[in-house]
Design a protein that fits this description.
The chain is an alpha+beta fold. It has seven helices and 17 strands. The protein folds into two domains: about 1-185, OB fold (Dihydrolipoamide Acetyltransferase, E2P); about 200-285, no CATH class. The strands form five sheets. Strands 1-2-3-8-7 form a five-stranded mixed barrel.
Length: about 290
């Protein structure tokens, strides 16, 4: 899978990094414009833009799209965030209560990214690396499983601190490598990281927002849909399947080859119990 390599630095002061987002400033900010596609990375005057890590989804530390800011249970949400920052090279981070970083040591950390697109929020979708880049900045690199293993995306999956989240732009060989690492983490004895508490497939008991923020560890995409539904003011989950149908997420179910619309196709509701009938790695989504 050919991807653009950009060399630069990770910077976090004044931002709210979580387990799958972090800010990055290319050594040459003009290289943002080498990324193909119809969208351009949103960046500040110094060239700093936001990364969304490719192929993974970590527990939310601050989600507020349709209401007050909420977060998933903090143990693994914070562990993913802290692991990301430590892995890229930050040794000390000071934050405000709202998660905004006020100081870090060092102030920035050199690294590189591999990318081929920008999401609708104008974040760069990327694999994030550290150390010496495998090629010159601004050039195309063939991304394979070997290079994948040198990214924090892969590290978070291996440690059981991220769910897989696949979009159609991710080539199948990289997707398969991530899936292999996911299943190894989940089937380890004991399961690694969040897989010890994950209730995505076994069923999460949802009696209100506190169930989502304090009790249940679930696939973040399902968490976000549940939060948005509860923010409508109805705690009766009987209407949740219809809500999912209205949201019209489009995705492929890999084991069956079925392309469908609406997460209600893979989500079951029984009273206060919500569960997915397919593992996250079985789904490949169209772009949000």
């Amino acid at each position: 899978m050919p991807m653009l390599l950009i060399k630069g630095s990770y910077e976090i002061v004044g931002t709210q990094p979580d387990g799958d987002t972090i800010h990055f400033r290319p050594d040459d900010p003009d290289e943002w414009d080498l990324i193909g596609g119809p969208r351009k990375v949103k960046r500040n005057a110094a060239g700093r833009g936001k990364l969304r890590l490719e192929g993974i989804d970590t527990l939310e530390t601050h989600y507020s799209r349709t209401g007050p800011t909420v977060a998933q249970p903090p143990t693994y949400a914070n562990a993913a965030r802290d692991t990301l920052l430590t892995w890229v090279g930050f040794t000390s981070v000071t934050r405000e209560p709202d998660e905004t970083v006020t100081a870090s040591a060092p102030a920035s950390v050199p690294g590189y990214i591999l990318t081929r697109g920008v999401d609708p929020s104008r974040r760069c979708i990327a694999f994030a690396g550290r150390g010496t880049p495998p090629a010159a900045s601004g050039t195309q690199v063939f991304m394979d499983a070997r290079l994948l293993e040198n990214t924090v995306n892969h590290h978070l999956i291996v440690e059981g601190l991220a769910y897989p989240l696949y979009y159609r732009t991710l080539f199948h060989d990289l997707r398969n490598a991530i899936t292999t690492a996911v299943r190894a983490a989940r089937s380890a004895t004991p399961p690694k990281g969040l897989w010890t508490e994950d209730s995505t497939l076994t069923g999460a008991t949802i009696t209100g927002m506190s169930s989502l923020t304090k009790d249940e560890v679930i696939f973040p995409k399902l968490f976000r849909r549940l939060v948005d539904y509860l923010n409508l003011g109805d705690t009766d989950l009987a209407g949740f399947p219809a809500y999912l149908d209205q949201q019209a997420d489009r995705f492929l179910i890999l084991p069956t080859g079925q392309f469908t619309t609406g997460l209600d196709e893979v989500v079951q509701v029984s009273g206060t119990t919500v569960k997915m009938t397919r593992s996250p790695e079985d789904l490949v989504f169209d772009e949000d």
